[in-house]
Amino acid sequence: MNFWDASLEDTVRRAGTLARRRPASRDVVDWLSLYDEDRPTSSNQGTGQLPFQRWFRFKEAYSPKFVADTIASLPHPVDRVLDPFGGSGTTALTCGFLGIDSVSLEVNPFLADLIASKVAAVRPSDLLRQYERVRASLEILPEDRVPPKGMPATMREPGRDGRWLFAADVFDTVRALVRGLAKVPSAERRLLRVLLGSTLVNNSNVVINGKGRRYRGGWQGRERTPRDLLDDLDVAVDSAVSDLTRFSVPAGSRHYVRRGDARVLLPKVDTVDLAIFSPPYPNSFDYTDVYNIELWMLGYLRNADDNRRLRLSTLRSHVQIAWRSTPAPGGSATLREALEALDASRAELWNRRIPEMVASYFDDMCRILSQLARILPAGRHAVCAIGDSQYAGTHVDVARIIEEMLPGLGFRLVKSEAIRSMRTSSQHGGSFDLREHCLVMERSS
Ligand SMILES: C[S@@+](CC[C@H](N)C(=O)[O-])C[C@H]1O[C@@H](n2cnc3c(N)ncnc32)[C@H](O)[C@@H]1O
């Protein structure tokens, strides 16, 4: 079921009318028609085979259809869109296809490269030539065998306590490829590094699930070799070459990717017509930890300090690192009650700092929304997909809390609609189904 329930052709026609620079609309319809419309548009489930989106399967993404539907539903023209939590670049890419300028902020440097790769004009022939060069000169040097200081000891065989993520020769091959990529021109290097990133988990001994990674059942019997890794990389490069040959983001629109913490970067962003985003949810999902394999193996993290700094720069939606907590913002009775209930059940919580995390999370969200109120002119919109959480029987009704805070932040709620239910994990304590909402907010005059 789609949120706006419009046909693809209608959505694209309407979104194209709202964009001042007319898109190559046949291209965007062709591209989006490869999206599986039966899947919830607020998830990435229908995008497994979608060109560009398949370069790296980012589980926490919404779909391009969600972005196109949102733009099509607006009562005003859209020239420039902001996504303060860019993730895998769904917003930027869809805007690119629609001929609309975009600004994406993203704290994770690997994901920032993924976004930049999707909107860059990389020639498929250049990509292939550079890749063939790197492959032809691939050679493992002694330095490739030495993990950088601070990298988790489990990353390379023999690991720790008999467990490791990568067989030694697979690890060394990845590091040699990353070294070889340093000589490649920047646009091709960025994309090739992203594609290498997309092969890592499959060639490791772990799978990513829920909130982190776990060892595969029987991983000791599933030896991966450098050959497997390189075969996967060949396939990934072939797919990207084929996507870039078949589609190109139409020239004419501009896309900026700003690397860093949205709380710090937003004060420097100028006027936009629309902000569309899905922030981290207050569900203790630690993005730095979940994408740790890509960050370390591809050289984005060079030491333990880099890792710590990155974790402290993400929204306070997790408890795995000691950020400084701040008081909960006012304006929401629902938040106050939830915090009282969490405080009363502190002893049952799997982490005692969860009440502070929830309070600090909403403080962060208030900072983000206050900045959006500065950036968006009156009558323009912010649209947000956001999910609830639950701890020891206390439901944190995120959409309702934000709705209650909106008037104090300079927004009027236009619409709040449940778009998906998400099964809770054991960390949430129960079989309760959590909801995801789409909030449509208008900047008040
Ligand atoms: C739910 S994902 C966004 C997914 C995106 N809509 C897409 O379709 O790919 C949230 C993103 O926020 C990023 N993030 C977390 N804290 C951030 C911060 N303080 N500033 C900027 N980005 C942040 C995470 O790295 C993650 O990529």
Description:
There is one protein chain. This protein has 16 helices and eleven strands. The protein has a seven-stranded mixed beta sheet. The chain has a two-stranded antiparallel ribbon with strand order 3-4. Strands 8-9 form a two-stranded antiparallel ribbon. It folds into two domains: 8-120 and 249-288 and 303-443, Rossmann fold (3-Layer(aba) Sandwich), CATH 3.40.50; 124-246, no CATH class. Mean pLDDT is 90; it is low at 425-431. The chain has helices spanning 8-18, 25-32, 64-72, 90-98, 109-119, 124-136, 168-181, 186-200, 226-246, 262-265, 287-290, 292-297, 304-313, 333-344, 354-375, 398-409, and strands at 80-83, 101-106, 206-209, 212-215, 255-259, 274-277, 381-387, 389-391, 394-396, 411-423, 433-443. The protein is 41% helix and 14% strand. It is an alpha/beta fold and 445 residues long. S-adenosylmethionine binds at residues 58, 60-62, 85, 87-88, 90, 105-108, 111, 261-263, 278-280, 287, 313-315.
How would you summarize this macromolecular structure in one to three sentences?
The protein is 41% helix and 14% strand. It is built from 16 helices and 11 strands. It has helices at residues 8-18, 25-32, 64-72, 90-98, 109-119, 124-136, 168-181, 186-200, 226-246, 262-265, 287-290, 292-297, 304-313, 333-344, 354-375, 398-409; strands at residues 80-83, 101-106, 206-209, 212-215, 255-259, 274-277, 381-387, 389-391, 394-396, 411-423, 433-443.
